[in-house]
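User: I've been trying to design a sequence by hand for this structure and keep getting stuck. Would you show me what you'd pick, starting by listing the structure so we're on the same page?

Assistant: Good idea, let's start from the same input. This is the structure you sent:
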């Protein structure tokens, strides 16, 4: 190889090396590596104002600029903690788009009124922990979660008491009781009292109604059923006498014989003195069927005897009652005389 060819080869190698170095510097890494996060998303934290007096309000902002071709704006989440400083208003998010670029701003309103917030001397610095911005990177169709830290500038809090304030005799603070502001309400007191009174009345009426409907009622007394008419049962003797008086039965002869035998037995047990029991038995065992006239006549004679016995018993009962009444009257008279 000639000197001229060797010189050209060295020059080409040097040009390739310089081009690779420039590509590495411009792309922020080795050729073929992923784009760095600053090219996909940038975030910055600011405080306004950065130098305040005790009790002042500070507004903190996290400004995020991203490329929508690589980062989903809806996936961006900002988390921040401010230690002793408390948020006095809800955080506010603003978004604006321009081409493929999206600008997000998350604003916080802060105030520190705790015991450890005022400076011990002239001033006190506050350094907050970095905020974190998380997002989803969608490179080559793949989604990957990334996180970026956002650092806050230092915040300086100055005291409100000057060097000469403590040298003055007495306290420099004064209270004005006459200028106390009027209280504020979320709802008008009169309207609230009216609504509560109506609600209490409704609840009271509801309780009364529930008590009324739930109170056990006295059940009406059941109507007594009408007493059943007494069922008069005939004695065997009366049944036998009715059968003897009825000569038109289908099986008249057999029924009459049985009835005559029953009448004879009952009369014999009662101590028959009129000869009715032998007459009834003779008819019951007669060779021929007892004639209806004979059985009816016997039934009439037996009924007449029974009625006489009943009259005798009734008369005896009345006599005994009269005697008992007389004895009671005599006893009562004796008691009165005594």
């Amino acid at each position: 190889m000639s000197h001229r060819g060797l010189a050209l080869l060295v020059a080409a190698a040097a040009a390739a090396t310089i081009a690779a170095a420039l590509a590495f510097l411009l792309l922020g890494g080795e050729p073929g590596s992923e784009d760095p996060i600053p090219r996909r998303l940038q975030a910055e934290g600011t405080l306004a104002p950065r130098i305040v007096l005790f009790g002042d309000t500070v507004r903190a902002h996290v400004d995020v600029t991203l490329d929508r071709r690589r980062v989903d704006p809806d996936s961006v989440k900002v988390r921040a903690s401010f230690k002793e400083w408390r948020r006095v208003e809800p955080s506010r998010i603003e978004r604006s788009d321009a081409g493929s670029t999206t600008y997000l701003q998350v604003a916080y309103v802060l105030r520190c009124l705790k015991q450890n917030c005022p400076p011990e001397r002239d001033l006190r610095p506050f350094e907050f922990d970095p905020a974190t911005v998380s997002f989803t990177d969608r490179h080559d169709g793949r989604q990957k979660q990334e996180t970026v830290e956002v650092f806050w500038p230092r915040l300086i809090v100055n005291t409100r008491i000057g060097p000469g304030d403590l040298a003055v005799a007495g306290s420099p603070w004064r209270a004005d009781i006459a200028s106390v502001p009027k209280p504020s309400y979320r709802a008008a007191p009169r309207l609230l009292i009216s609504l509560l009174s109506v609600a209490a009345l409704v609840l009271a009426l509801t309780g009364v109604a529930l008590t009324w409907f739930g109170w056990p009622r006295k059940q009406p007394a059941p109507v007594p059923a009408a007493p059943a008419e007494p069922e008069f049962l005939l004695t065997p003797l009366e049944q036998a006498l009715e059968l003897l008086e009825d000569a038109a039965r289908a099986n008249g002869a057999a029924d009459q014989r049985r009835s005559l035998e029953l009448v004879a037995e009952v009369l014999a047990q009662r101590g028959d003195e009129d000869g009715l029991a032998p007459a009834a038995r003779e008819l019951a065992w007669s060779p021929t069927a007892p004639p209806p006239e004979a059985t009816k006549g016997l039934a009439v004679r037996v009924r007449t005897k029974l009625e006489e016995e009943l009259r005798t018993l009734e008369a005896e009962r009345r006599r005994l009652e009269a005697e008992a009444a007389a004895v009671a009257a005599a006893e009562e008279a004796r008691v009165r005389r005594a």
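That's my pick for every position. To get oriented when you compare it with your attempt: The CA atoms of residues 86 and 110 lie 5 Å apart. The longest strand covers residues 57-67.
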